[in-house]
Structure formats: structure tokens, C-alpha cells
Specification:
This protein is mostly helical. The protein has one domain. It is built from six helices and no strands. The longest helix has 28 residues. The termini are close together.
């Protein structure tokens, strides 16, 4: 990824597995928090959950995984995104999704910087949240 190319299928699989592990850890932490709050009034527990969700949303909005060079690139006016590929939601084989995405983008005349810039638009749900949480400038 650091050489300006989009992630390889192997790298995507590794990143996906890391995302699954992080999700398991978050589920474990939530279960522990819920267990600690069993004796508290229900309203208080709901408010705490809202704070966690708000914090997560605000954190992901500030994340900018794509480098400044990629984000500053002016997209060609005549470039169109593939319309037949559905966004990846974190379910199924990420290697298949990345391979299809890359093939369709190349068929549409895209090159590396356009492929990188367009990739997040083909993610949804937990896959998009994972991508949004990557360190700032980590995709170059």
C-alpha cells in the first residue's frame, strides 16, 4: 500500500481479519460494561450507549486514511464509477470484492490514484467504519 498502489487482496484480507478481531474486542468490552451496569437504572445505561455511538461517529468523521496527495488529486470530469458493483459490507470474501473493484475500475480507465480515491465509496456498514478508522494518511 505504501508504494501508491491499492491494497493487494492479501493485504485486504489481513486488514479485514484485524477489523474482525477489533470488533470482537469491542463486543467483549460492551458485554463487560453491560454486566457492570446491571444494577443501574435503565435510562442511565441508554444515555451511556448514546455517548459511545456519538463518540464513534465523531471519531470516524475526523479520520482521513487517504494521503493528502490522493485527496488533492482532481478527478477527471468524464470519469464514472462502476454501477454494477455493490458496496462491501464486511460480509463475504474481501479478496473477491477488491479483485472485482480493481478490475471494474481499470476497465473504466482508472489508474492507482483514482482507484484509491474511489475505494471508500464501495464500502458500507462495518467495512466503511473500519476504513474510516484507519490512521490519518496511512494510504499513500
Amino acid at each position: 500500500m505504501s508504494n501508491g498502489n491499492p491494497p493487494t487482496p492479501q493485504e485486504m484480507a489481513e486488514l479485514f481479519n484485524a477489523m474482525k478481531e477489533e470488533l470482537q474486542q469491542l463486543k467483549k468490552e460492551r458485554a463487560e460494561r453491560n454486566k457492570r451496569e446491571e444494577g443501574k437504572p435503565h435510562k442511565e445505561a441508554e444515555d451511556d450507549d448514546d455517548d459511545v455511538v456519538t463518540s464513534c461517529v465523531l471519531k470516524t468523521r475526523r479520520s482521513k486514511a487517504l494521503s493528502k496527495e490522493i485527496m488533492d488529486y482532481e478527478m477527471p470530469l468524464n470519469f464514472t464509477l462502476p454501477t454494477t458493483l455493490k458496496p462491501y459490507k464486511g460480509v463475504g470474501d474481501p479478496i473477491i470484492h477488491v479483485t472485482k473493484f480493481e478490475s471494474m475500475m481499470i476497465l473504466n480507465g482508472a489508474f492507482d490514484i483514482i482507484i484509491c480515491r474511489s475505494f471508500p465509496t464501495f464500502l458500507d456498514g462495518s467495512a466503511f467504519l473500519w476504513f474510516s478508522s484507519l490512521p490519518e494518511g496511512s494510504i499513500k
